[in-house]
Design a protein that fits this description.
Layout (H helix, E strand, L loop, with lengths): L12 E10 L5 E12 L2 E4 L6 H9 L1 E6 L3 H8 L7 E3 L6 E3 L4 E11 L6 E11 L8 H14 L6 H18 L2 H21 L2
Antiparallel strand pairs: 1-2, 1-4, 2-3, 3-8, 4-7, 5-6, 7-8
Helix pairs in contact: 2-3, 2-5, 3-4, 3-5
The structure holds flavin mononucleotide.
The site of flavin mononucleotide has 18 residues, from strand 2, helix 1, helix 2 and helix 3.
């Protein structure tokens, strides 16, 4: 008899999104963040301290989660390009990315304190679909991975980052469009600059 395969859920799913928060004067802050999806109407945002996203959420209790396939925004935020077109949220005081496929407006429910990475437990109060999801793309995955690697330039050895970037480049060169190539270029410029600074 064939043994039955059992799936054991060990952790919540993580989705890479763009979080937009506001400070008390209404100034928007855009940051890529991996959110943990706990239930249909509940997510957890985990910012590493210090974080403007964390400060803004504590001050205003709200955020907009953008589900976005324009990877230039992920790469742009990490390379100093944070000025992306926005419009007003519908049910909360907040801002939405113009170029997002969908977004959720969330309110802070509670905080699990942690000196390194507190958990912000949030309730989804409103979700809007703007455009259809058109399928997976390997170059977008490659840019996301590269953006995460570049965001860890200060912790990870350069050789490890270089090796993983080389692997990501395979999917990129086979499947990228102009947005993905532009985003990749920004990340590689920053990587080259940091690598030069770290090389004696
Ligand atoms: C795909 C992706 C996911 C990320 N997820 C997180 C995250 O969950 N928490 C975090 O603190 N930073 C995350 N980062 C790095 C932040 O976007 C970046 O450090 C940012 O500046 C956060 O700090 P801020 O809130 O002060 O803007 C992620 C970066 C990328 C590219």
């Amino acid at each position: 008899m064939t043994p039955m395969l059992r799936c054991v859920k060990v952790s919540s799913m993580i989705q890479e999104t763009i979080i937009i928060t506001q400070n008390t004067t209404g100034k928007a802050h855009i940051a890529p963040m991996g959110i943990h999806v706990e239930q249909a109407d509940e997510i957890i945002i985990l910012p590493f301290r210090p974080s403007t996203t964390l400060d803004n959420m504590l001050a205003t209790q709200t955020a907009v989660v953008n589900y976005c396939d324009d990877v230039r925004i992920f790469a742009g935020c990490l390379t100093g390009r944070r000025d992306w077109p926005l419009h007003a949220a519908e049910k909360i005081s907040g801002q939405v990315l113009q170029n997002t496929l969908a977004h959720s407006e969330v309110e802070l429910l509670s905080i699990e304190e942690d000196p390194i990475r507190p958990k912000l437990i949030c309730k989804i109060v409103h979700t809007v679909n703007h455009r259809p999801f058109m399928g997976f793309n390997r170059a977008q995955f490659a840019v996301l991975e590269a953006a995460i690697l570049v965001s860890r330039l200060d912790w990870l050895p350069l050789e490890k980052i270089q090796a993983e970037l080389d692997y990501c480049r395979i999917g990129l060169t086979k499947t990228a469009g102009t947005r993905e190539l532009e985003a990749w270029g920004w990340l590689m410029d920053l990587f080259a600059q940091k690598a030069a600074e770290q090389t004696p």
